[in-house]
Structure to design on (296 residues):
């Protein structure tokens, strides 16, 4: 093959992938570069860069007394929500994969929390859990479970629990459909052959279905990790990260640093740290994917 042919084959796909490359460069790479650049400058409250600031903004972030508990809370938030979402979505997807009357209606109904605005869903839950006129308190009082209303979103411990519960609620539809898509790729003939061989339902699931679901589970887990880590609407619409900083994650803390404390440089520094963590998640995903390909 001539050198001209090789060169042509290398760039033959450029017209097709060119728009995607441009979009990634404009929507991802350039904002990331600007974010890091901003974190290394002194920025006044109006957004005007006053000059090079080195790592001063990062020092300010690490000196923030609320950073350490926020990091711990973020880890609990991310891994707790993702784990609960997958544990609930796995049997739910298995149920929706079975044939039963009204299956289509149930599948379409599952889309509703996903299709609805996350902000509106969070606001509805904030009304439900309101300590004065919330429906949840009224139901518990009617059943005699509580004697007086509880401020669920103002009580430390309970408020973060309910934030995680709502985050799981809005994450289940996507995760369930990813796993459901994985279930449709499991060959029926293999399952039928194992049934003929006398394998029980649990054995078929453990030895055949679940191993074949691992790629779908990996995709669902990684995408959920990224989405939940960057989740802002649920926390901000329900508690605003409060009372105080008691329900903040690093995402909402970065927002407060920028728009409440008017410290844009420190906010950019924290956002850059968040970006590094996201890159680590992606690198782990790519490494696991390559490991899987090498073992096949």
């Amino acid at each position: 093959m001539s050198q001209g042919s090789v060169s042509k084959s290398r760039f033959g796909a450029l017209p097709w992938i060119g728009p995607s490359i441009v979009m990634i460069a404009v929507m991802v790479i350039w904002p990331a570069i600007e974010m890091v650049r901003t974190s290394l400058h002194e920025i006044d409250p109006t957004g005007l860069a006053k000059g090079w600031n080195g790592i001063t903004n990062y020092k300010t972030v690490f000196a923030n007394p609320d950073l350490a508990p926020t990091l711990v809370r973020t880890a609990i938030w991310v891994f707790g929500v993702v784990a609960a979402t997958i544990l609930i979505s796995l049997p739910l997807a298995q149920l929706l994969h079975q044939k039963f009357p009204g299956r289509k209606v149930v599948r379409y109904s599952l889309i509703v929390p996903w299709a609805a605005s996350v902000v509106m869903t969070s606001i509805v839950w904030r009304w439900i859990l309101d300590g004065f006129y919330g429906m949840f308190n009224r139901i518990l009082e009617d059943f005699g479970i509580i004697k007086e209303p509880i401020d669920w979103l103002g009580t430390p411990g309970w408020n973060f629990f309910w934030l995680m519960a709502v985050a799981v609620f809005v994450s289940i539809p996507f995760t369930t459909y990813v796993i459901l898509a994985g279930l449709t790729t499991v060959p029926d003939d293999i399952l039928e052959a194992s049934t003929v061989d006398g394998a029980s339902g649990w054995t078929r699931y453990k030895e055949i279905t679940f191993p074949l679901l691992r790629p779908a589970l990996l995709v669902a887990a990684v995408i959920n990790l990224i989405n939940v880590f960057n989740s802002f609407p649920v926390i901000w619409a329900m508690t605003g990260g409060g009372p105080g900083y008691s329900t903040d994650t690093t995402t909402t803390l970065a927002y407060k640093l920028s728009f409440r404390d008017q410290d844009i440089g420190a906010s950019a520094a924290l956002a850059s740290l968040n970006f590094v963590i996201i890159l680590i998640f992606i690198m782990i995903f790519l490494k696991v994917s390559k490991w899987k390909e090498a073992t096949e």
